[in-house]
Amino acid sequence: MAELQSGGGGGCCPPMDLFRSEPMQLVQIIIPIESAHLTVSYLGELGLLQFKDLNSEKSPFQRTYAAQIKKCAEMARKLRFFKEQMLKAGILSSVKSTTRADNNTDDLEVKLGDLEAELVEINANGDKLQRAHSELVEYKLVLQKEMSADPSKQIKLGFIAGLVPREKSMSFERMLFRATRGNVFLRQAVVDEPVVDPVSGEKMEKNVFVVFYSGERAKNKILKICDAFGANRYPFNEEFDKQAQAISEVSGRLSELKTTIDAGLLHRGNLLQTIGDQFEQWNLLVKKEKSIYHTLNMLSLDVTKKCLVGEGWSPVFATKQIQDALERAAFDSNSQVGAIFQVLHTKESPPTYFRTNKFTSAFQEIVDAYGVAKYREANPGVFTIVTFPFLFAVMFGDWGHGICLLLGTLVLIVREKKLASQKLDDITDMTFGGRYVILMMALFSIYTGLIYNEFFSVPFEIFSHSAYACRDLSCSEATTVGLIKVRDTYPFGVDPVWHGSRSELPFLNSLKMKMSILLGVAQMNLGIILSYFNATFFRIGVNIWCQFIPQIIFLNSLFGYLSLLIILKWITGSQADLYHVMIYMFLSPTDELGDNQLFPGQKTAQLVLLLLAFVSVPWMLLPKPFILKMQHQGRHQGQSYEPLQSTDESLQPDTNHDSHGHEEFEFSEVFVHQMIHTIEFVLGAVSNTASYLRLWALSLAHSELSSVFYEKVLLLAWGYNNILILIVGIIVFIFATVGVLLVMETLSAFLHALRLHWVEFQNKFYEGDGYKFSPFSFALLDDEDE
């Protein structure tokens, strides 16, 4: 650790290492008040320090910089208001601004306030003018419709004219009739074009109406009904000459209002465009300021109130960069006193930090979704980069489907920069984030598809001609008994002659089932071996002798032996029944094997392996609790405050223990925990091996579905010799292939591969109870939603 620390201070970053997380350190920074803001700003640009909240007992309103945060929140509110207005006006904010934005938040606060006041005033005036314009349009419609009526039919009665929403016109008429007991005359005329309602500002279809009545009582009832139905009323003169004059006056006023409204909209558009040119810079500045003050609130004031004291986690390699940032901030702020940087010693568990790139980050996310690695424990993400897409491809193997996946992924990768700058919907964003995972899945699918020799379920003689030929002309539907070997063995993958034969399913079933067991046992062994590297790294010898060794013996005595038998059977071409061998290895271990013997001394080897498997169970269960008890007693003899450091619950010596006196060692709890762990491993060895058979099942299902779509859709349509049926068949085949095989089957195989990694592989060594390194970084502000 000392070497790493001294190397980290040299200014150059060590090479990226995904196998174990970066070495971390707890640091303390003492910053003079006058340079605090600039210091935190420079650390935010660096993005390699995770601050601890030293004021967690205080409420947000009791903290030092509560007023500044409130000011930033108010500026953020104004910016959100501007964004809403720009969206309504269809104006986009410019990413690159030609003018320089204000870096002074006080000046920006004043500027935003002035702009908001101006925009609110423009909006208020615009709304008033628009309402007046809408009222005049409706008034003009009333005048035009009523003038078109025959003057000789007009009766000397009181009347009210206006517009009512068309959808309410029938109810309006019924209500008038009932309220006045039929003592009114209502006349309606349809307005051809939708008009803007002065009250709501929305376009709606309306009818012009005029109600003739007699008496003040009827008039009051009609006015109330008009208000209830949202009918806008307008004055209407009975004299024809005055009506024509009114129309002329209204038309003139409409023209003036239209000119005024257009000028207002132009001014508003120019103002919003000015805001849009600098919006992104202002928004980023406000976000930065807010995050700086939030971070400053996590620091504590010293007793003199002249310095701020902060603590946080940083990678060891970042020491020199942090010190440089502190020196630069002190110089730029003209501070007479520089910041003090020192490393603290702690027993607290540090955060986990892996430096990933755009390729490895998605694979690391797959692991982190299960649980973040404990500090410095072996990271399954390194192996996941290869094993995850490979196990997916075992289930998805078809090089035609693999090419389709590859082409789809290449589109995302080619348009990477453009898509990264856009806001995508959830599903597209998830697919884009995992583009390199899908790329690897596609490449491995092409590889396994070539091994299975399947292109949309059709075999091809790619690498050579088939090694087999028929004995006579009638053997096309025969089993392999009817075939004779006429050439060298097919050089790569499955011989195409198997496809379409009666023995295709039994042969491929046997091949894929045994291959699944081999892959499963290999991956589980890898998991147990990684537990050895963890125990070695953290110097926990008891885990090597009482966990790693018995586990590796138990797994390989049973399923490692089964894997060996499978390989021997393939090599020798033996007809031995492996089911019989494994079952009677337990039921009758002393019986002769007869035809099922694959190598000399097999019976003795089985007895030895069976004995080792039985011995390894108590070996896992009994010694470890007693050894831990002895270690605890030895550690606390003559010592008062030494914490227990190496337990099964902790992979590291410096774990989060508080040394407040002697620790309690509950032997019964440790023993029960070890017993559960042992039972889980023994039963899991069987169930996990069986779980890998999903590779066989999913591969078989994919192959059979692909075959059904090809034979029962495409070939069937081809057989009709009808171009229309063929086109329909091709369309159905494409939709079935894309919908079922390229979407549903991809998702299914992905989830099964995920389960195999999370449960069958990672439970052998991975604790995953750490927490992520979350540094204060301006680079992460763009991902945050206000």
Notes on the structure:
The chain is 58% helix and 8% strand. The chain is an alpha+beta fold and 786 residues long. The two termini are 40 Å apart. It is flat and about 125 Å long. It is built from 22 helices and 13 strands. Strands 1, 2, 9, 10 and 11 form a five-stranded antiparallel β-sheet that branches.
Distance between the termini: 40 Å
Secondary structure tally, helices: 22
Task: Assign the structural class, choosing from mainly alpha, mainly beta, alpha/beta, alpha+beta, or little secondary structure.
Answer: alpha+beta
Overall pLDDT confidence: 87
Q: Which percent range describes the beta-strand content? A: 5-15%
Q: Report low-confidence residues grouped into runs of 5 or more.
A: 1-14, 640-662
Protein name: V-type proton ATPase subunit a3
Layout of SSEs?
Layout: H1 2-8, E1 24-32, H2 36-46, E2 50-51, H3 66-89, H4 105-147, E3 158-165, H5 169-179, E4 185-190, E5 195-196, E6 203-204, E7 206-213, H6 216-228, E8 232-234, H7 240-296, E9 300-301, E10 307-315, H8 319-332, E11 340-344, H9 360-370, H10 381-396, H11 399-414, H12 416-420, H13 426-433, H14 435-452, E12 468-470, E13 483-485, H15 504-537, H16 541-572, H17 578-587, H18 602-621, H19 623-635, H20 667-691, H21 694-718, H22 723-761
Antiparallel strand pairs: 1-10, 1-11, 2-10, 3-7, 3-8, 4-7, 5-6, 9-10, 12-13
Helix pairs in contact: 2-7, 2-8, 3-4, 3-7, 4-7, 5-6, 9-10, 10-14, 10-21, 10-22, 11-14, 15-16, 15-20, 15-21, 16-18, 16-19, 16-20, 19-20, 21-22
Protein name: V-type proton ATPase subunit a3
